[in-house]
Amino acid sequence: MMIDETKGRMADEAAGEETPSPEAEVEQGSFALWDRLRSPRTLISFGLAIAIVLFALRGLNIDLNETWIYLRQVNAWMLLLGLAVFYITFPLRALRWRMLLHNAGVPVAAGRHSWASLPALMEYVYLSWFANCIVPAKLGDAYRGYLLKHNGKVSFSSAFGTIFAERLLDMLGLFGLLMISAWITFGTRMPDGTQIVFGFGALLVVVILTGLAGMRWLSPVIRRFIPHRLHTFYERFEHAALSSFSPAVLPRLFLFTSAIWMLEGCRLFFVIEAFGPEVATLSLAAIIFVALASSLLTALPITPAGLGVVEGTITAVLTLFGIVPSLGIAITFLDRLINFWSIVVGGFILYLFSKRR
Question: Beta-carbon neighbour count of residue 320 at 10 Å?
Answer without folding.
Answer: 17
